[in-house]
Each structure stands twice: as C-alpha cells, then as structure tokens.
Amino acid sequence: MLLQIPDVFTPDELARCRSLVESAEWADGNITAGTQSAKAKNNRQLPEDGEAARAARTLVLDALSRSALFFTAALPRKIYPPLFNRYGGEANAFGNHIDNAVRTHAASGTHVRTDLSATLFLAGPDEYDGGELVIEDTFGTQSVKLPAGHMILYPSSSVHRVEPVTRGVRIASFFWIQSMVREDERRRMLFDLDMAILALREKHGDTAESVRLTGCYHNLMRMWADT
Ligand code: NI
C-alpha cells in the first residue's frame, strides 16, 4: 500500500525542522547504505549522532505520535530514529535499490525489520527540479513529489529511486517502520476496515453493526499483531 499522509508537520514545526537541518554539517550519504545501495547512492545525510539531527528527529517523532492516520496505516511497533537527507549539486540522486531488510541502530543496538519506508518532504516541489521518489511495485510505477510537511508511506519491499535533482535542493526526513502486522496485505485490510468503520460512525453514529465491525477489527488485530 502506498499512502500519502498530509500535514504531518505544522508550518511552524516545518520551519523549525528546516532551520535545524539547514544549518547542520552534511556528510556523505553512504554512511547508512548497504553494499548494493552504496553503488547507487549519491546524496548527503546528517550524521545520526549530531546535535541538529537529534533535535530534528524529536520533532519528527512528536509529529508522528499525533498522527492517527500514520498509526492506523503503519501500526508501528518500532520506528528507526528518523534520518535526514539532501539532494542537490553534485550529490543529487539515488538509483534503483531495495532497502535493507533489517536496520540496526548503532547507538542502541536495536534491530528494526523494515516493513514500511517513509519519506517526509521538508522542501516544497517549487524549490527544486527532479528529485521525484519513484516506487516500483505491484501497483505499477509511482512518481512521488509532495508538498513540504507531507509524508509518503510505502512497502520497504519495493524497488525505488530518487531521480536526479537538476535545480535547487531537496531535503527530506526518511525512516523505516517495523509494523505490528508484518504482511502488507493484512495491514491493508485492517486499514480499509478501520477507515470504513470510521466513515460509518461519522454517518450513522454508533450502531449495533458498527460495534460488531469494530469487534472484527480488534479480533483480526489479535490474530495478526505482534507486540
Ligand atoms: Ni531506499
């Protein structure tokens, strides 16, 4: 499932996050790449342990914790501490690759199985040319370029790339999520069911039927969720 989550950041949070990352010292993006993706990767990244990355990461995690849409779509069990990347100038693209299945967070030694990948756009589409996130999956090839503050969530099993940035600078936060529900199809079904129940309750209030359906949702979660 490919899902846009609009307005993850308020305009104020976006401005704070941008000023943090823009004034920081960027490093070679290959600091977190696997051996295959290192050959395709040509961008800049904020070192994970830097002061700016730490403060900006907290802003992202706080924003995520408020997002009901993110929660119901991802059903997060673990979130890899958000990272930040920059595409522009000489370091402007990331060719086709698949994200590593397991990311180990060096500082804590925590392993995160990458069920979902997320990109939170920090620069607006008018600020740069190119830089589309292109995702190839069973749903076809999708080209994604969102307003600043919006986020895209996609299966980490997808081949994806970032097209060369030919003007301006594209900055974004990116991270991975280990979901309580490992399978994309099951997560999708739970999401659709949750959204349908929400719509029914808005239309008709709580009814005996919506209570039953809510029970089905939770019973499916009980069957499928790992906590
Ligand atoms: Ni990737």
In helices, the fraction of residues equals 25-40%
N-to-C CA distance: 21 Å
**Domains, number:** 2
Tell me, what is the CATH class of the largest domain?
Answer: Mainly Beta
Q: Provide the CATH superfamily of the largest domain.
A: q2cbj1_9rhob like domain
- Based on CA inertia axes, which overall geometry fits? globular
Level-2 CATH architecture of the largest domain:
Sandwich
| Low-confidence spans | none
In total, the number of strands is 17
Q: Per CATH, what is the topology of the largest domain? A: Jelly Rolls
Ligands and ions found: nickel (II) ion
Question: What is the average per-residue confidence, as pLDDT, rounded to a whole number?
Answer: 95
Listing every helix as H and every strand as E from the N terminus to the C terminus, the arrangement reads: EHEHEEHHEEEEEEEEEEEEEHH
Instruction: Give the biggest beta sheet.
Output: 8 strands, antiparallel
Task: Give the helix/strand class.
Answer: alpha+beta
Number of helices: 6
Strand content: 25-35%
**What integer value in Å does the Rg equal?**
18 Å
Q: Describe it for me?
A:
This protein has 227 residues and is an alpha+beta fold. The chain is globular and about 60 Å long. Strand 8 and strand 9 form a beta hairpin. The chain folds into 2 domains: 177 residues, q2cbj1_9rhob like domain (Jelly Rolls); 41 residues, DNA Excision Repair, Uvrb, Chain A. Strands 1, 2, 4, 5, 6, 10, 14 and 17 form an 8-stranded antiparallel β-sheet that branches. A 5-stranded antiparallel β-sheet has the order 3-7-15-12-13. It contains 6 helices and 17 strands. It binds nickel (II) ion. Nickel (II) ion binds next to loops.
